[in-house]
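U., I forgot to send this yesterday:
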Amino acid sequence: MALLRRGVGVLLVSFLLLGLAWRWPLLAKHERGTAQPAGLSRLVLGPGRLALQALSLLLFVLVFAAALVGDTDPFSNLAPTWVYVVFWLGVPALSVVFGNVWRALSPWRALADLVVWLRELGGREARPLAVYPERLGRYPAASALFSFVALELAYADPSSPRSLAFAIAVYTYLTLFGMAAFGRDTWERHGEGFAVLFALFARIGPLFAEQGRIRARWPLTGLAGAERTPGSVAFVSVMLGSVIFDGYSRTSTWQDFAARVERPFIVERPGVGELLVTLLSVGGLVGAILLVAGAYGGACTIARWTVNAPRSLVAEFLLSLVPIAFVYLVAHYFSLFVLQGQFAIPLLSDLFGKGWDLFGTAGVIPNLAAISPTTTWFVQVGALVAGHVAGLLIAHDRAVSIFPERRVALRSQYAMLSLMVLYTVGGLWVLSRG
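Result:
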């Protein structure tokens, strides 16, 4: 309770300081940043990117092969640890620090680039087959991200290598089909769930590439402005809601409820019980996503009423939720990344679980005492509070940008402050019960 009160107190103090000192929009002013040396940009975006694409494609083939034909024990197979720990938790951190690295690390983009290069080498032009319907916006990406988190959080055996192989194959087919149909860049912006996710996280950090040049800017400036692409609210809600449900699903309350649902079928019809728990989890996941979307929509509606705004404010403040989504990942998965991530080192030498030692690391023993529970708790609380303060800052900067009168801008933020407090209290409560 003491940490909870301190967290809420930090938000309140931050709100007061922003109201007193932050009177003009500053984030958008520095959004362009400064260009870095041209030679560095050419090296990183040219040969450096090609090398990363080749490496990512090789790793993709190895991970898929391990999932398809490797040991069926998830603890002896590289694929589950690679997908759920190294990829799912590592790439967001890389994106925040180094910018949108997924453009170079995406194996699907690498495959598409290779196909286009071969076609053009043969004298044929590679053109999209259709024009992307703008009204769809990011709804395909939200659906793709939802499918992945549903596999991770709702499916009975998400770490099964064969299940992962099937999921990888289906996602690869849909992604390459989307890129062929609508173009590589267009599908990455609207349909490829991971590309949209990591691009949003990259806007938190200080580095980005534009027109073949690496540029540096102040952190968070990439989140200035409104986000009007259709489907963006749905996408961000999946980002936040999935992590909230993951935390809540680990509580004794949820576990006991799921056990009661499954118990009548566990002996005579275990498949039915397993299906019911899966459907229950999908329902819980959808409920968490709707809760996030409803809370945000309600806060924006109240803010609009407070200042008599002529139009909806949903698009204006949406990007303030992006750092919150990132710190939720940090808070919920920090210990998993540090501890379980170590297992990727020996598994890389024996990725199929056949007793190999390709790189001499098969004998590495992970240190499961690398971090203490106290350290984990403080990292979790610190990340949650810092993320919500960042969200307040972004929302306040947008408010003073669209409402020239300072008092009106401050009134519009009362509802956003309440939303941040709600998210903070909810996040800390789930962590304390997990």
